[in-house]
Amino acid sequence: MAEFVQQYGALRWAAVLAFTVAALIVLARLSAVRPVAAELAGRAAPGTGGGQAPGSGDGGAVDRESDAAHLLMCLVMLAMLVFPAADPRALNGVLTAMTVVYACLLLARVARWRAGEPAGSEVLPGAGVTAFAYHVVAAAAMLYAMSGHTGGHHSGGGPAPAPMLALAGLFVADAVIMSVPAARGILRHMFPHPVGAAGPAVVLPHVVMDLGTAFMLVAAASA
Question: Of all residues in the chain, what percent carry a pLDDT higher than 90?
Fold first, then answer.
């Protein structure tokens, strides 16, 4: 993977720039908005106008857990791009931990959703579940891609190229759909973000993650 990433230097540094911008956008969103639960509690209070839809208030409530997972994944991708020759065992450890934690958080959301409790987003029932499932899939895909790399070399027991290329195609398709305003409603993992005022600042981090993950999967498949 390191050889592929270093061979396409222009694409590599364009991806670094894109992930940096995406991380800054998500970080700004995390620091500027209230979590869904806080906004819902505020609307429930007398005189707060409880008829508004989530995400339409002044705070623009978003799913903080989902955005935090997005930010962490951006940072991991940046580390992989800036330091492509780093020990892959360290990356495997980080991605394993992320996948396990994300999966546990997803299971907790499923349990809350089935119990009729808020599960990260109130825009649509279960939207918070599907939103976080995206992060689980992205982390698991990168862990799968790195599973054949040990000690800086590609081992013979790694994943076959075909599944990684198929996964890359799915992420590219997701990015294309997310880039078309009329098609965004197809993908429910968009809804935890403030889609009422959807624009480049909302969509860009997701598209960057899709295309960046696809690029890394292709790099792994080419190793």
Answer: 34
Q: What is the pLDDT of residue 149?
A: 62
Distances in Å between the alpha carbon of 92 and those of 23, 63, 88, 147? 21, 27, 6, 7
For the question of whether the overall pTM of this predicted structure is more than 0.70, the answer is yes
CA-nearest of 161, 4, 27 to 81 is: 4
Residue at 133: amino acid letter: A
pLDDT surpassing 70 at residue 76:
yes
d(CA 21, CA 1): 24
**Residue given tokens 């707060």 in the structure block:** 48
3-state secondary structure 2-56: HHHHHHCHHHHHHHHHHHHHHHHHHHHHHHHCCEHHHHHHHHHCCCCCCCCCCCC
Residue with the two structure tokens 């109130």: 122
Q: Show the CA angle centred on residue 20, arms to residues 74 and 127, nearest 5°.
A: 45
CA–CA distance, 209 with 110 (Å, rounded to integer)? 24
Residue 104 pLDDT exceeds 90: yes
